[in-house]
Predict the 3D structure of the following.
Amino acid sequence: MSWMAWTLATGIFFACIFTVLVVMAVWEQISPTVERRGFLPMATTRGDRLFIGLLCTAFIYLFWLATTDASPWLALPGSLIWMAAIGRWG
């Protein structure tokens, strides 16, 4: 594993992704999801909306890094709001 630059931030990131996946799996077992339509152009499940939200967050950060020299932490509120909107109304 020496090929990757493991830092505290990297470890926290992967731990958070792993935790979200475990929580989603348990939630699915307790309350099976039903496909629904929101503002996204297709019917989606909870997992679909999570995946789409994570992709959107990555693109928000890429856009942020490409257009500004400001700290990436400043993009976090917008990413969280967009992720919540996709999860709730997507």
Notes: The chain has two domains: 1-32, 36-90. The first helix runs from residue 8 to 30. Residues 1-32 form one domain. The chain is about 65% helix and 0% strand.
